């Protein structure tokens, strides 16, 4: 792709492309894992192996997203750490460049993962209650 049309956009495009690639790679590996589990079940059914409901429930729960409170707390803390890193990065760039507006811009950027992380932390106790109700 020719980036000469985007003289000043090459760095942000690289960052956002990197984020999109991370999401795509994660999706592909999740799809491969689920496909592998389904192929294993198909082969077991074709060979005549009896599959008990407990094993089927274990496979279906492992293929679904892990919605445990510990997972939500972990994701929330990671997102808050990313927000702090972005704010610190903006502070350092602003200090080196002598421009105070850079820190303000990076605070706005850091607000997105930070607030999403706070929502994950707040929702963790509710996930614990809903998982107890399902059992």
From TrEMBL:
| Key words of the record | Membrane, Transmembrane, Transmembrane helix
In terms of superkingdom, the source organism counts as Bacteria
Q: Where are the transmembrane segments?
A: 12-32, 73-93, 105-127
Q: What is this protein called?
A: Uncharacterized protein
Q: Provide the species name.
A: Aquisalinus luteolus
């Amino acid at each position: 792709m020719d980036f000469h049309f985007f003289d000043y956009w090459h760095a942000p495009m690289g960052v956002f492309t990197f984020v999109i690639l991370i999401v795509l790679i994660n999706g592909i590996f999740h799809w491969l894992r689920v496909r592998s589990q389904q192929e294993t079940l198909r082969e077991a059914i074709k060979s005549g192996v009896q599959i008990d409901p407990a094993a089927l429930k274990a496979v279906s729960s492992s293929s679904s997203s892990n919605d445990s409170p510990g997972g939500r707390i972990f994701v929330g803390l990671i997102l808050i750490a990313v927000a702090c890193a972005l704010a610190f990065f903006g502070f350092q760039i602003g200090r080196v460049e002598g421009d105070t507006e850079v820190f303000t811009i990076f605070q706005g950027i850091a607000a997105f993962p930070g607030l999403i992380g706070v929502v994950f932390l707040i929702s963790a106790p509710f996930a614990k209650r809903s998982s107890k109700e399902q059992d």
